[in-house]
Design goal:
Elements lengths: L8 E4 L5 H12 L3 E6 L4 H12 L4 E5 L5 H15 L4 E4 L14 H29 L3 E6 L12 H21 L4 E8 L8 H5 L1 H9 L9 H12 L10 E4 L11
Parallel strand pairs: 1-2, 1-4, 2-3, 4-5, 5-6, 6-7
Helix pairs in contact: 1-2, 1-8, 3-4, 4-5
The structure holds beta-D-glucopyranose.
The site of beta-D-glucopyranose has 10 residues, from loops.
Length: 257
């Protein structure tokens, strides 16, 4: 089978688990070398690296907290050092905190905003500076959420960050288009990953959510990874400035409890 991403190099943030891990492995299966970014224990990142190498592709490894500017710059520099260059950036790393609006602390607000939107902003900036210096085209894929558009009470900082990601994508699609750089968002609904650990353990809450999903199941990380590969490939060369929702129909059928 021909591969979509033969000879390409991708950076995937938060690729030690969940959606990011699946994307990193899938991009490698489609022919790309991949820089694995992680924070904290190395186990998941090493699993991702091994799975990439099992496909015959190269994997880079870098511990970088996207909320810290020096880390973001180091992630880009390490990619060029370990893998020679990059063509594709996947801003995947993300967190959420569940709290009533009146209880949100400055610490938790900053934690969510810094990882989910400040990080992608400055990582994209560092990546684009490299592309400009090399006069290379590129692909930027942001993993946002249905909550870039849809309300999610008790997760207001998360919604602010994902709504910000939507506007960042739209602005950058226009500003970077003339450089041959495309920018798109993929907006997952409820996916079977560690971010949903507490939801998965709460059967009544899970069942209420499932009742709102027309396709009747949570999504799997591979449901997201396949579209990332398509958009990053030559098939995606005329696609920029849009969000692609992958949610089993949730967004069209969402009811608050
Ligand atoms: C959130 C999940 C939530 C899902 C659907 C995702 O963006 O990370 O916690 O279950 O949206 O509401």
């Amino acid at each position: 089978m021909s591969q979509l991403l033969e000879g390409k190099v991708a950076i995937v943030t938060g690729s030690a688990s969940g959606i990011g891990q699946s994307i990193a492995i899938h991009l490698a299966q489609q022919g790309a070398d991949v820089m694995v970014d992680y924070v904290g224990p190395q186990d998941g990142a090493l699993q991702t690296k091994a799975a990439i190498e099992a496909t015959g592709r190269k994997a880079g490894l870098c511990e970088a907290d996207v909320s810290r500017l020096p880390d973001v710059q180091r992630l880009v520099d390490e990619t060029w050092t370990q893998l020679g260059r990059a063509d594709i950036l996947v801003n995947n790393a993300g967190v959420e905190k569940n709290a009533a609006f009146v209880d949100v602390t400055e610490h938790d607000y900053d934690f969510v905003i810094d990882i989910n939107i400040k990080g992608p902003f400055f990582l994209t900036q560092a990546f684009v500076r490299r592309l400009i210096a090399a006069k290379s085209p590129g692909r930027i894929l942001n993993i946002s959420s249905v909550h870039e558009d849809m309300v999610f009470p008790h997760f207001t900082s998360y919604c602010i960050s994902k709504g910000g990601m939507r506007m960042m994508m739209r602005n950058l699609a226009v500003e970077l288009g003339p450089l041959g750089i495309t920018v798109n968002n993929i907006a997952p609904g409820a996916i079977n990953t560690p971010i949903n650990t507490s939801l998965l353990a709460d059967k009544p809450k899970l069942n209420a959510l499932l009742a709102n999903i027309p396709l009747g199941r949570l999504g799997e990380p591979t449901d997201i990874a396949a579209l990332v590969a398509f958009l990053a490939s030559d098939h995606g060369s005329y696609i920029t400035g849009s969000t692609y929702v992958i949610d089993g129909g949730l967004m069209r059928n969402y009811h608050e409890q």
